[in-house]
Design goal:
Blueprint lengths: L9 E2 L3 H5 L1 H10 L9 E2 L25 H5 L7
Parallel strand pairs: 1-2
Length: 78
């Protein structure tokens, strides 16, 4: 009755591949990964993004927004 869903392919690029995203996408296309629609990329263990948010050190302040008021065009008040 139901078709079995194929597992998502996983690709683990090297650091050099990960530095050049367009080259990586072309390589994945050449390898035939485009047939799946999406794949999982596992970042290299040594990859360190230039900017990342450290949740341990800081707290994000949230604010209550009433969506029906925003839709009506009311300005958000702090």
């Amino acid at each position: 009755m139901y078709q079995k869903i194929m597992e998502l392919p996983v690709y683990e690029p090297t650091n050099d591949e990960f530095k050049e995203p367009f080259v990586l996408i072309k390589k994945l296309y050449d390898l035939g990964y485009h047939k799946y629609g999406c794949i999982k990329l596992k970042t290299p263990k040594t990859w360190n993004p230039e900017f990342s948010y450290n949740r341990q050190d800081k707290k994000l302040n949230t604010r209550k927004q009433i969506l029906r008021d925003l839709i009506k065009g009311k300005v958000f008040q702090l």
